[in-house]
Design a protein that fits this description.
CATH architecture of the largest domain: 2-Layer Sandwich
Number of helices: 13
Radius of gyration: 38 Å
Number of strands: 15
Structural class: alpha/beta
Shape: elongated
Number of domains: 4
CATH topology of the largest domain: N Utilization Substance Protein A, Chain:P, domain 4
CATH class of the largest domain: Alpha Beta
Largest sheet: 5 strands, mixed, barrel
CATH superfamily of the largest domain: NusA, N-terminal domain
Helix content: 40-55%
Strand content: 25-35%
Length: 379
């Protein structure tokens, strides 16, 4: 190694942000391995690397003992004193063993170490850059599709959109650009593996933050999101400012804000509802666009019975139960939907059973009178 190599290290340190010390540590370890590999030595070897000139020296390192039991790692006192008469038992013996042509091997090894370190550093830089962007929106260009996986060009690196994170029915054409959620960044030996999503509920949240200034400013907040990607989603919002209508802010003038999000999501339908501290009101809102007559809640079981007009029952439940299912996810409550006539029939059944019971067993008032009579007889 020479001055040219040392100046190259300085340049790498500036451009790639790799400290010289990191390269030197890796280089010293690699030089020991190269020495043992090229010269068939199993000795304990130490490297001295001049960090100014790049000069390399190799030393065999052994413990000085009275009786040698492990020759590659031990040396007798008498043998050690042939090199230096001042050596004592228990000290470390060092003797230079640098081969004549080791400079060429050192230069080749140094080149390989530096190249590897540059690759490692670039991977670390990429990882650090993307790990800070997890759960954010990123725009990528479709590169190719292979076995269901969609590979996306992010400029500096490639990311993957697995089948589980794709919108059902959406086609991913090569060269087309999409907004996606940066779901996860994994550190691997081949560099960062970046996983994207088009189906995650957080993608809708980030899209609303982009399209609705009141949300990005924190005036309007998103309470919860329920989504069945590619089909329908519900989003519950509320406003911290009484003068700001959260529903109007999200919909936008003539629906332009929500339309931009729907267009981005393969025409996925989005219901925007108002969140309320009153859980009965929130559950009623969550079943939009259906009208609700009454909501009866059971706080202990986090369940509710919802009464809707007869003509609104199918709308409240939705196709294949989707509206009710999304409402339950949005509120995190179990919801049982009944039409008004169904509820009245049930109530009628309960009233008839109660009447039969009272006719047979009597009412609570009858029981109380009978008990008082018994007491009087005893007296």
């Amino acid at each position: 190694m020479n001055e040219e190599f040392m100046s190259a290290l300085d340049q790498i340190e500036k451009e790639k942000r790799i400290p010289r010390e990191v390269i030197f540590e890796a280089l010293e370890s690699a030089l020991v391995s190269s020495y043992k590999k090229n010269f068939g030595s199993n000795q304990n070897v130490d490297v001295e690397l001049n960090k100014e000139t790049g000069e390399v020296k190799l030393f065999t390192v052994k413990d000085i003992v009275e009786l040698v039991e492990n020759p590659p790692f031990e040396i007798s006192l008498s043998e050690a004193r042939q090199v230096n008469p001042t050596y004592q038992i228990g000290e470390i013996f060092r003797d230079e063993v640098t081969p004549k042509d080791f400079g060429r091997i050192a230069a080749q090894t140094a080149k390989q170490v530096v190249i590897q370190r540059i690759k490692d550093a670039e991977r670390d830089i990429l990882y650090d850059e993307f790990i800070d962007r997890e759960n954010e929106i990123i725009t990528g260009q479709i590169q190719r599709v292979n076995r269901g996986n969609v590979y996306v060009d992010l400029g500096k690196t490639e990311a993957i959109l697995p089948p589980s994170e794709q919108i059902e029915g959406e086609s991913y054409e090569q060269g087309k650009r999409y907004k996606m959620l940066l779901l996860e960044v994994k550190k691997t030996t081949k560099g960062p593996q970046i996983v994207l999503s088009r189906s995650h509920p957080s993608l809708i949240k980030r899209l609303f933050e982009l399209e609705v200034p009141e949300i990005s400013q924190g005036i309007v907040e998103i309470f919860s999101i329920a989504r069945e990607a590619g089909s329908r989603a519900k989003i519950a919002v509320f406003s911290k400012d009484e003068e700001i209508d959260p529903l109007g802010a999200c919909v936008g003038h003539k629906g332009n804000r929500v339309k931009a999000i729907v267009d981005e999501l393969y025409d996925e339908k989005i219901d925007i509802v108002i969140w309320s501290k009153d859980i009965a009101e929130f559950i009623a809102n969550s079943l939009s666009p259906s009208k609700v007559i009454e909501v009866m809640v059971n706080n202990d079981e986090k369940s509710a019975v919802v009464i809707v007009p007869d003509y609104q029952l199918s709308l409240a439940i939705g196709k294949e139960g989707q509206n009710a299912r999304l409402a339950a996810k949005l509120t995190n409550w179990k919801i049982d939907i009944k039409s008004e006539s169904q509820y009245n029939d049930l109530q009628g059944g309960y009233d008839a059973e109660e009447k039969q019971y009272e006719e047979y067993y009597g009412t609570e008032e009858d029981e109380a009178e009978e008990f008082d009579g018994e007491e009087n007889e005893v007296r």
